């Protein structure tokens, strides 16, 4: 069995669905706002540009997305978007914030199996209240010794968290769906990372790299990769 002092798990799109909700909201945004856009405007690209611009100020998560959606609707329509459409955008955001957590297949069994052999922590980023609510209602919190909700997932932040948890970065294995946020920063600290891709990836999470790391088809392959028998 592989030896690590700690396994760290990402949450969104690693343990439960998230990006499919954003994807559906983006589609809905395009449907609602396209009728107010000038011809030839790529409504979806304009929304992403507003999100990119706002990221340092709004941070990650559904509320940040919602504010950017309203701003983008106003700017794309040059102020002609109706209050009815703005109301529908707000409803869309509220629905995304309040929908129950949808776990990815076999996640509870895998965590139970792996947790018999390793200390496990959850490291997620985004909106504090939404992430806290998802963790609390997921039924998964008891698997983790610690739960960390971060503003950003970069080497500096991981280093600070690993030190706080009393673990050397080189003794950590991180499991997550985002190469940019879960894999590269942990490898930069000398840790190990396991990539478990989700079918959808947010445009602002795309990254070019030439690093090599374990790439699993599904989280159900994790116990085998770790060398856990049975
Ligand atoms: Mg993720």
Layout: helices, strands, pairs:
Elements: E1 6-9, H1 19-33, H2 43-58, H3 62-76, H4 83-98, H5 107-115, E2 120-125, H6 128-137, E3 146-150, H7 155-164, E4 172-176, H8 179-188, E5 192-195, E6 214-215, H9 222-226
Parallel strand pairs: 1-2, 1-4, 2-3, 4-5, 5-6
Helix pairs in contact: 1-4, 2-3, 3-4, 7-8
The protein binds magnesium ion (MG).
Oligomer: single chain
* Largest sheet: number of strands, sense, barrel closure: 6 strands, parallel
What is the CATH top level name of the largest domain?
Answer: Alpha Beta
User: What is the CATH third-level topology name of the largest domain?
Assistant: Rossmann fold
Determine Rg (CA atoms, Å).
19 Å
Q: Could you say what the CATH architecture of the largest domain is?
A: 3-Layer(aba) Sandwich
Lateral strand order in the biggest sheet: 3-2-1-4-5-6
Tell me the number of helical segments per DSSP (H or I, 4 or more residues long).
9
Shape: elongated
Distance between the termini: 12 Å
**Proportion of residues in β-strands:** 5-15%
Whole-number average pLDDT?
96
Structural class by helix and strand composition:
alpha/beta
Bound molecules: magnesium ion
Give the tally of structural domains: 2
Low-confidence stretches: none
Could you describe the 3D structure shown?
The chain folds into 2 domains: 6-16 and 101-226, HAD superfamily/HAD-like (Rossmann fold, 3-Layer(aba) Sandwich); 19-98, Putative phosphatase, domain 2 (DNA polymerase, domain 1). The chain is α/β, with parallel strands linked by helices and 230 residues long. The mean pLDDT is 96. It starts with 5 loop residues before the first strand and ends with a helix. It has helices at 19-33, 43-58, 62-76, 83-98, 107-115, 128-137, 155-164, 179-188, 222-226, and strands spanning 6-9, 120-125, 146-150, 172-176, 192-195, 214-215. Strands 3-2-1-4-5-6 form a 6-stranded parallel beta sheet, sandwiched between helices. Strand 4 (172-176), helix 8 (179-188) and strand 5 (192-195) form a beta-alpha-beta unit. The protein has 9 helices and 6 strands. The protein binds magnesium ion (MG). The site of magnesium ion has 7 residues, from loops.
């Amino acid at each position: 069995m592989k030896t690590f002092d700690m396994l760290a798990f990402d949450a969104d799109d690693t343990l439960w669905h998230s990006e499919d909700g954003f994807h559906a909201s983006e589609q809905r945004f395009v449907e609602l706002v396209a009728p107010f856009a000038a011809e030839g405007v790529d409504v979806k690209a304009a929304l992403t540009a507003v999100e990119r611009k706002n990221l340092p100020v709004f941070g990650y998560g559904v509320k940040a997305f919602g504010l950017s959606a309203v701003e983008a609707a106003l700017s794309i329509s040059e102020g002609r978007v109706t209050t009815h459409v703005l109301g529908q955008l707000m409803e869309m955001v509220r629905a995304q914030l309040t929908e129950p957590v949808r776990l990815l297949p076999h996640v509870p069994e895998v965590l139970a199996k792996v947790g018999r052999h390793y200390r496990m922590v959850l490291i997620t980023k985004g909106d504090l209240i939404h992430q806290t609510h998802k963790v609390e209602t997921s039924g998964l919190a008891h698997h983790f010794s610690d739960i960390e909700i971060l503003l950003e997932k970069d080497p500096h932040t991981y280093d600070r968290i690993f030190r706080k948890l009393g673990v050397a970065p080189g003794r950590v294995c991180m499991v997550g769906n985002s190469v940019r946020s879960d894999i590269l920063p942990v490898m930069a600290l000398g840790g190990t990372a396991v990539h478990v891709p989700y079918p959808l990836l947010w445009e602002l999470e795309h990254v070019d790299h030439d690093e090599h790391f374990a790439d699993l088809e599904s989280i159900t392959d994790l116990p085998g990769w770790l060398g856990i028998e049975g």
